[in-house]
Amino acid sequence: MPQYNPPLRDMQFVLHELLHAVDELKLLPAHAEIDEDTINAVLEEGGKFASEVLTPINLSGDQEGCTLDKTTHEVKAPKGFKEAYAQYVEGGWPALSCDPEYGGQGLPVLLNQFMYEMMNSANQAWTMYPGLSHGAYEALHAHGTPEQKTTYLPKLTSGVWTGTMCLTEPHCGTDLGLLRSKAEPQADGTYKITGQKIFISAGEHDLAENIIHLVLARLPDAPQGSKGISLFVVPKFNVKADGSLGERNPVYCGGLEHKMGIHGNATAQIVLDGAVGTLVGQPNKGLQAMFVMMNAARLGVGNQSLGLTEVAYQNAVVYAKDRIQMRALSGPKSPDKPADPIIVHPDVRKMLLTARAYAEGGRALSAYTALQLDKALSSDDADEAKACEDEVALLTPIIKAFISDNAWIATSHCMQVFGGHGYIHEWGMEQFVRDSRINMTYEGTNTVQSLDLLGRKILGNNGATLKKFGKKIAEFVEEEGTSEAMQEFINPLADIGDKVTKLTTEIGMKAFQNPDEVGAAAVDYLRVVGHLTFAYMWARMAKLALEKKDSGDPFYTAKLATARFYFAKLLPETASLIRTARAGLNPLMEMDEALF
User: Is residue 580 within 8 Å of 528, Cβ to Cβ?
Assistant: First the structure.
């Protein structure tokens, strides 16, 4: 069975040395009292919960899966999931970064980010239950009516109730403008909602006493397309005026999806048969409210993928140091043994270092983005809040797509390190691969994220937000440009920055003539920009490691070696990506459909 050790040392490095998070957070009124000791203590206790409570039920949860009683429509989660969730609630973990007005602890999003990384490493399927709930909390916190907030937020904050988002329908995935679910107004101000939703993560389960569904549906007079979508909150059990649970609402699980991974999470087909709901936000403007949850979910998927990359790496390293096979080509490294540990072989090291570089780079970028999100939510400077909000919007599709792409590469490499044992279930590696592959697809496929990045977030404002982020990189390059020791990091960082600028301009000019050029280049483009963000993070981390390489702490020696690996072996991928992005639309579209 795979094991997990929370990477607390690297988390503390990112928080306290790379980001100086406490100094940044103290400038925000909501976090003026935060300190390093509090952050470290929370991380340590959270790591214990992840490794001691969640890890032991990950493999078994994948094997057992969820069970649907077709008579009652009730779903039972795998053995141990309900008990783990009770411990999670008892420990106050759901309230970590929630608003104190509704019973939350008011701690930074950044800290919640690290908590969820650890839980995702330990057990992604389980972590999706509270993860979806936190997204529902955020959507209602931003757009709910005072009554909805009073009714639902304290229960979501405490974890006594969980939440979902119900978007997808059998005929309607990414193109939500096609959805057919209907909402009929009632005399008492509520709505009766009818329709079918599919692929609803954590849609039905036995972990909590109530489930709060956020449902997209159409009002009778709604215009066609995405401009005619409204958002409704639909509880599994209706809530009485005094806050107690009333009768069962006719929203139920009609079936469970049989998936390639995340078996421990109930991916439900949800049937709404005149279910009672209340309107969230303005009529026909439901997507604006739902995007709060959708963007939270996209950042969450990046976090899931980061967690899988880390845990796969940890287990592959342990195996590579223990497993003996063949001799090193340069001669025996362990002459006292019949063969050498496989970690001496260059390609095994390449696979391990790829996973490590993607894990540590992903952690740095995710934490950086979470810190900007804290500023966007809590700064009393409107200009700073808006600038941080724009930067988070730019980085969100990169975090979702680039980190999940990297997780697929990394978990596959780590499974390969195990050889034949890698695809045997009891070792746990093939589960990481299956789970990571799903992350590339849901919450908006990675192609959709690429279109969002290039078409909306960059070309949509003529590259203004990208230029602001690029300015930060340029300032760092200028600061370190005279440092001889930093040249191996600064030169390639400056180079990829220049190339992104030129590539963006070129694609923008092509797209002006034919918008399909965006679709032709977007996936390659996102990966190039993803590497730009990672190169920036790795250059900054390399600077810190260089400054402390003679400290005697092996952490900095390893960090510097990993940085060098990233720049030498992973960043050069951008050369081929830029070339294929520039190849444009014609190679994709010139063949007649009939010839496929």
Answer: no
Beta strand 161-166 pairing with 182-185: unpaired
Structure tokens at 46: 């959270």
| Strand ranges (E), 174-250 | 182-185, 191-201, 210-217, 230-235, 237-239, 245-248
**Average pLDDT, integer, range 434-441:** 97
Task: Quickly tell me which residue has 């330990």 as its tokens.
Answer: 122
Tokens of 106: 């008011």
Calpha distance 194→189 (Å, rounded) = 16
Q: Which residues pair with 273 in a beta bridge?
A: 194
Nearest to 262 by CA among 296, 323, 305: 305
Burial 161-193, CB ≥16 within 10 A → b, else e: bbbbbbbbbeebbeebeebebbbeeeeeebbbb
Taking alpha carbons only, the member of 243, 337, 248, 268 closest to residue 67 is 268
- How far, in Å, CA of 194 to CA of 216, rounded? 11
Which of 117, 169, 391, 443 is flagged as catalytic?
A: 443
Instruction: Name the nearest CA neighbour of 45 among 102, 103, 87.
Output: 87
Is residue 33 annotated as a catalytic residue, yes or no?
no
- What is the structure's pLDDT at 294? 83
Three-class DSSP labels, 288-356 = HHHHHHHHHHHHHHHHHHHHHHHHHHHHHHHHHHHCECCCCCCCCCCCCCCCCEHHHCHHHHHHHHHHH
DSSP at 172: B
The whole-chain average pLDDT of the chain stands at: 96
> Would you say the pTM of this structure is higher than 0.70?
yes
β partners of residue 235: 212
The closest of 351, 348, 316 to 333, measured between CA atoms, is 348
Closest to 124 measured CA to CA, from 435, 442, 412, 443 = 435
29: its two tokens: 């009124």
Q: List, for residues 86-118, the tens digit of each pLDDT value.
A: 999 999 999 999 999 999 999 999 999 999 999
pLDDT in tens, 376-413: 999 999 999 999 999 999 999 999 999 999 999 999 99
